[in-house]
Amino acid sequence: MKKEKITEADVRRWEAMAGPPKDHVRWLDETCVYCGRQLNSWDQRIANALQIGFCMCESCVAEEEYGMTVDALRARMLEAFGMEPCKGVI
Ligand SMILES: [Zn+2]
Fold it and tell me: How far apart are CA 77 and CA 42, in angstroms?
């Protein structure tokens, strides 16, 4: 199934109904300085946990900062911080 971008309008609609899905990813008005991809709430959580400036997507953090794959970074985040990707993160 094709993943669609969650918009603020979607979030407001969920909030009006049963509330937003817990931990669902939110897309932010920031882009990655390396690849230009739009950043989301999961990228932000990674940046906060690793105490790096929030300006990079998870793949660039993984590859540029740590020289590892995204999967390896996610495994590390889970192990070190008990953090799992927000729902909706590809
Ligand atoms: Zn990037």
Answer: 11
CA of 67 to the centre of ligand 1 (A): 13
Ion ligand 1, residues whose Cβ is below 5 A away: 32, 34-35, 37, 57, 60
Is the confidence at residue 15, as pLDDT, over 80? no
Supply φ then ψ for residue 77, to 5 degrees. -65, -40
If we measure between CA atoms, which residue out of 50, 49, 80 comes closest to residue 65?
50
Question: Where do the structural domains in the chain lie, given as residue ranges?
Answer: 25-90
pTM of the model: 0.73
CB atoms near residue 19 (< 10 Å): 8
The answer to whether 25 and 41 are in contact (CB under 8 A) is: yes
Q: pLDDT (tens digit, 9 = 90+) per residue, 25-50? A: 999 999 999 999 999 999 999 999 99
Q: Report strand pairing: 27-31 vs 38-40.
A: antiparallel
